[in-house]
């Protein structure tokens, strides 16, 4: 299994593509396709057919589409900027992620 520097519920910034500069929260990670689903980023409109069995009305629905994991960077809460992520061990032996700009631990 691949290890990504981003985790679910991380605050990230899009660094390339049509949504460059947007900030959102990671909703889902699609590991098989190396993609992430970011809240309010890469939003498209889909035309849906009504489904009376599930009480779903038809119409135009806006939904987020996945973007490649290399196009996002983790936002550090302490320095409020997109940053590279490093790993280190705490005194009690727990592996944690940290901001390489300000050395603060990323939650």
Describe the structure.
By secondary structure, the protein is mainly β. It has one domain: SH3 type barrels (Roll). Helices cover 0% and strands 45% of the residues. The protein contains no helices and eleven strands. It has strands spanning 11-14, 23-30, 35-38, 43-48, 59-64, 67-68, 72-75, 82-83, 85-89, 95-99, 105-106. Strands 6-3-2-1-7-8 form a six-stranded antiparallel β-sheet, with no helix packed on it. The protein is elongated, with a radius of gyration of 17 Å.
Write a brief caption for the model.
Helix content is 0%, strand content 45%. It contains no helices and eleven strands.
Kindly list the characteristics that best describe this protein.
elongated, single chain, mainly beta, three-stranded antiparallel beta sheet, SH3 type barrels, 11 strands, six-stranded antiparallel beta sheet, 107 residues
